Amino acid sequence: xxxxxxxxxxxxxxxxxxxxxDVIEDRQDRKDLMQEWELMMQxxxxxxxxxxxxxxxxxxxxxxxxxxxxxxxxxxFISMTTKEKINFLIxxxxxxxxxxKAAKKEAVFSVNITEPGDYQFMFDNERGSxxxxxxFALDIHNATYEHIKHHDLDPLMKQIQHLQNxxxxxxxxxxxxxxxxxxGYEQMQTTHQRLFYFTILETIIIVSVSVWQVYYIKSIIxxxxxI
Length: 227
Prior knowledge:
Oligomer: single chain
Structural class: alpha+beta
Pfam families: EMP24_GP25L
Domain GOLD: 49-222
Number of helices: 3
Order of helices and strands: HEEEEEEEEHH
Family: Belongs to the EMP24/GP25L family.
Distance between the termini: 27 Å
Protein name: GOLD domain-containing protein
Transmembrane segments: 195-217
Radius of gyration: 27 Å
Strand order of the largest sheet: 1-8-3-6
């Protein structure tokens, strides 16, 4: 009896450690993400932003044709409430991997493109145990267009364009941050709920052990009296 109780107690402690490790790991990943965002994603205005379901055990591939040297930037994230993580790859027209993110719930990237062609963005959930909802945003910086626009627009149009870019940037950052906050809030609720249930179970086990100890000691005392 007591061995079973201590076994259950050890399992619960192990589960608590796993939960805390997951929370610490997620916080570190988020800290690293924010540092990368500050370095690479200033004035990020996505050309496309989509959400799609990534099935368990599958790889989703998106292709984008790029016809001139440029820089592509982007970000993706999945629900923060899940323990699952996905892999992300970018392949050039020759099939070479030019950027990758392994086992991440969310990530950003910035890649310089020198060769025109069709580039693949691959979301890998082959080792996952459940479907994932992925949000993906991509910006392809058109260097030629930006160069012409900068020299040909009059000062008023430049100011209007600057304001429009600023508004778009704020709208995207607000939407992206809101989705991340909602996911983070859901994850916090789930974690707290699990900790609450584990705490109740721990309390029951501790009370059971205490009652058993009292009963055991009482039985020993009664036996001595009989002797």
